[in-house]
Amino acid sequence: MPNLLGGSLTDSTEGSDNEQISDRPESLLPRSKRRRFSPLKVANQIPKRRRIEIEKALEGSSGTPKKWSRQSGPKNHTFLRKRIPPGSIRRLEFDLLSVDIGESWPVPITVVHGARPGPTITLLGAVHGNELVGPLALTYLSGPNFIGSGKAIDPEALSGTIRIVPIVNMPGYKTKSRYMPDGRDLNRSFPGKPDSNTSYRVANRIWNKIIAGSDYVIDLHTAAVGRTNMPQIRANLAHASSNRIARSFGIEAILDNAGPKGSLRRVTNDADIACVTFEGGGPDELDPESVQVSLYGILNVLRSLRMIPGHPSRPSFRILASGSLWIRSDQGGLLDVLAPAGSFVDEGEVVATVTNPESPSESHDIVSPTRGLIICSATNPFVTAGTPVGHILPVSKGVQTIRKRLDEDDCLVISGADGDPVWRDDDEVEDITVDGEWSGGNVDAEWSTNPPTGSDEEAAESDPHQ
Ligand SMILES: [Zn+2]
Fold first, then answer.
1. CATH superfamily of 48-320
2. Which one, of 271, 305, 314, 258, lies nearest residue 121 by Cα?
């Protein structure tokens, strides 16, 4: 049995052997009390071919598009057939469905149109109706603590336009459901069709009326049912303007991924509009850290785009990940997670234990297959053999840099979650690349337990989680 308190791993097979019966009390100690062990694997990186793609996409992408050149004068912003004068705030409602009778599902939108010209950025929450970090963060952002004279978003000082939509999937939100009332996943339905099913109609109206006129989109999500995410950004880093706002968000973990078919991120990028997905926390819950980090990131993006005054904060490092591994239970029973989302773990470290009421004297360890950062972990303790219990980014570079940002439980302190933000030049940020492929084809493919109805093959395999 591995002595995690003081000894080294005595048998290299034990680290991955969940058959063992563990009766040791050490696993109940705080994680920080347990000893680190295991050698490093060879350094890995985003694969060369992908790096070349990303570098190529970034070439010649700087400069301000003419359409919102700072030299042009202020203009009215036309949105949903309303004219919004420069330097003003408007509260609007947008109907998800265009009907004469029956439910139209109006959603509230706040538009802040700056006194000075600039880009249009659209901020979305609850495309999945039960993911509440976005609604909470964007409701705060729409309110008087953030918007107004002398506040972070001052219409008189703002360059460009901010559209804030705290709740996109209003019917799902009201029924505490991820899905639309027709059982479909709105985030697999873009760009939609006007004469098709309900979700496609809604997606198409959102696409035409809200997304198409945007230069940048930030879409706020949480993990799906039964798990929770460490705050992270997902973006196609080979899409230049998405790459820019992914980095300028100012947090540590960026997952390079185009997004599943029909997802807002993928379809938006296909139309050459920048889009990143923020993920943090879990559904049906308040996750104050994720709310705080998402607001911090949005303000960083606005500063970086020079829409609002001030310097963007930057993290001391970024993990640019193109691959991941799943940690699974090999037993059935009740899970006790020792290394939750955000934990930095070593190869062979016990990340969770499984017990079963039928044999209460037995406890099985689940160990990490690699050193890395756990970006998502199970919150539902019920597991069967094969159930994923954690999603890990293997890390072999920058380990010392990462360790400096771990708390006493070896959890990463995400920028924006603690204290005053730090200003850094972008070239002072250490980029740490993570190699590989997304296990199962997409970032969260393995979590898929509830494929959307009426979906194609890819959607059935895809991530229910973005
Ligand atoms: Zn989501």
1. Zn peptidases (3.40.630.10)
2. 305
Report domain extents, the chain: 48-320
- Give 397 Cα–ligand 1 centroid separation in angstroms: 30
CA of 155 to the centre of ligand 1 (A): 30
Q: State which H helix or E strand residue 137 sits in.
A: helix 133-142
CA nearest 464: which of 130, 124, 96?
130
Contacts of 17 (CB under 8 A, 6+ apart): none
Q: What is the pLDDT of residues 158-184, one digit of tens each?
A: 999 999 999 999 999 999 999 999 999
Instruction: Report pTM.
Output: 0.82
Which tens digits make up the pLDDT trace of 383-401? 999 999 999 999 988 999 9
| Axis-axis angle for helices 240-248, 48-58 (nearest 10) | 100
Distance 231 CA to ligand 1 centre (A): 13
Rounded CA separation 263/266 (Å): 5
Instruction: Report yes or no: 408 and 443 within 8 Å, Cβ to Cβ.
Output: no
pLDDT score of 11: 33
Structure tokens given for 273: 């509009």
- For residue 231, give the 3-state DSSP assignment: strand
Distance 348 CA to ligand 1 centre (A): 31
CA of 78 to the centre of ligand 1 (A): 29
**Distance from residue 466's CA to the centre of ligand 1 (Å):** 4
320 C-alpha to center of ligand 1: Å? 21
- Ligand 1 center–CA 223 separation, angstroms: 6
